[in-house]
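Anyone have tokens for Glutamate-1-semialdehyde 2,1-aminomutase? Sequence:
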Amino acid sequence: TDILSEYVSKTQKSKIIFEEAIKYLPLGVSSNYRFFDPYPIYLVKGNGGRVWDVDGNEYIDFILGFGALEVGHANPKIINEVTKALQDSSILGFEYYKTVELAKIISKRYNVDMVRFSSTGTEATMHAIRIARAYTKRKKIIKFEGHYHGSHDQLLININPMVQKDRVPSSLGIPEETLSNTLVAEWNNLESVEKLVKSQSNDICCVIMEPVAMNMGLIPPEKDFLKGIFDLSKEYNFLVIFDEVKTGGKMYSGALGYYNVKPDIILMAKSIAGGFPLSVIAGKREIMELIGPNKVAHGGTFNANPISVIASYVTLTQILTENAFYYMETLSDRLERGYRDIADDLDVDLKVTRWGPSGMIYFSKEVPRNYKELLKTDIPRWFTYFYSMLNSGILPMAGFNEQWTVSVMHTKEEIQKHIEKAYDAVKKAKE
Ligand code: PLP
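Reply: yep, here.
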């Protein structure tokens, strides 16, 4: 309560905006995930690794637009190129001539044959399911507990340990019929996938996953788990879809490059476009060539608009270079070691996972291996830590099921400050 009253006293202008906002915007926000109790902060601007709220509070930002901004806020290279591009229109209605250059870069870097662009991760996963169904002529999808693939019905299905059912919609308004086509397996449990595949082998069109789960903390696949799924896909003829909306921009060639595997379809968004809306649906030629008139529908007014194309081009060619990944990895590794030292020093049950520029902490004796284990970690403690961090000017991560992300514009000093403030916040959480 002390922590919350400090939060309220520091964010009085946000509070006033919130009170106005809830009259016009449900929850006072434009995405449910931006809301937290008692009201969220409202931001004005960002620069590099920092953002400022309406009260003038400065925060070092490790949320980075839910992992969409590894280029950092107001990156000068992005500003420069996008400002130039704006002079030549932001939407042309026909195909922008430079789109092919971006498609080529993505094709080489991620080792995919063909690419289509949409604007959001949600659109990418939605189309991927349609393509997989068209290709296999089957309709059932397997997804994993705790994985998030955007806000459309087919994939907004998860488990709820409080409810005695194997799966439930994550939203009102999703019809029962939709549930029958989306099956839910347990992450890092190959048997759970095998069981579903075997029982409905003629119906499964695809397994879709976040290859490193980043909507339930940060939980990488265990050894041989991915291989097991690829083996099953060959035996039972379903497609493997990697939702790399987060991971795609977190290693130079995404998770598929890191684990050296070849999924049938990959989806990317967020960081690969330097903070602009652009998503990628990519995959093997014979699958992607199903897209077309009288075949698989794919469209979108803002698809591959010149601004997003230029922003992504600059991001991939000039900003998220191999050196940049090395830099982000070094900073993120420092954070990881910082948290491990804090856990030792304070003798608190705190575990850390990390993958490239991102990492996560859990108030737990064990590192969670799946969603149910994440839910068993000490989430109230995490909230105490979170609000203490906000009060001390750090946005550490967007939720107990999210993770930190380091940008190319963060500095060593900012990492050091994060660690110092985290020491106090973990100490408070321990009390
Ligand atoms: N897939 C993953 C793995 C995500 O993390 C997200 C967003 O958080 C999405 C898909 C949906 O992307 P968008 O919010 O751009 O629709």
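The chain has a mean pLDDT of 97.
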